[in-house]
Amino acid sequence: MNTMSYNILKVMTQPNGKRTHVLLTDGLSQILEIKTKDEAVNMVRIFNENSDSGWVYELRSTKRRA
Q1: What dihedral angle (degrees, nearest 10) is formed by the CA atoms of 57, 58, 64, 66?
Q2: What element of type H or E holds 13?
Q3: Dist. CA 31–CA 7, nearest whole Å
Q4: Could you tell me the strand order of the sheet in which 19-23 lies?
């Protein structure tokens, strides 16, 4: 059984160079947890392709919650 899951970080760089990292949440304000790497990679790709604000999305692996 795969014990890893994946989160998506939105990385925002301010004009002064300061970076802020925000974990994406689901519809219930819980940290979004994606069970498969393929699905997570695809979501990150879509978010980055559609970002008109210049923010960058990154994948983060984490231990799966019970």
Answers
A1: -20
A2: strand 4-13
A3: 7
A4: 19-23, 4-13, 56-63
Q: Are 19 and 13 in contact (CB under 8 A)?
A: yes
Q: Write down the pTM of the prediction.
A: 0.84
8 forms beta bridges with 59
Q: For residues 39 and 24, give the distance between their C-alpha atoms in angstroms, rounded to a whole number.
A: 15
Q: What is the pLDDT of residues 6-37, one digit of tens each?
A: 999 999 999 999 999 999 999 999 999 999 99
Cα 46–Cα 25–Cα 57 angle in degrees, nearest 5: 35
Give backbone dihedrals phi and psi of 24, rounded to 5 degrees, phi first.
-70, 150
Phi, psi of 42 (to 5 degrees): -65, -45
Q: How far apart are CA 15 and CA 58, in angstroms?
A: 20
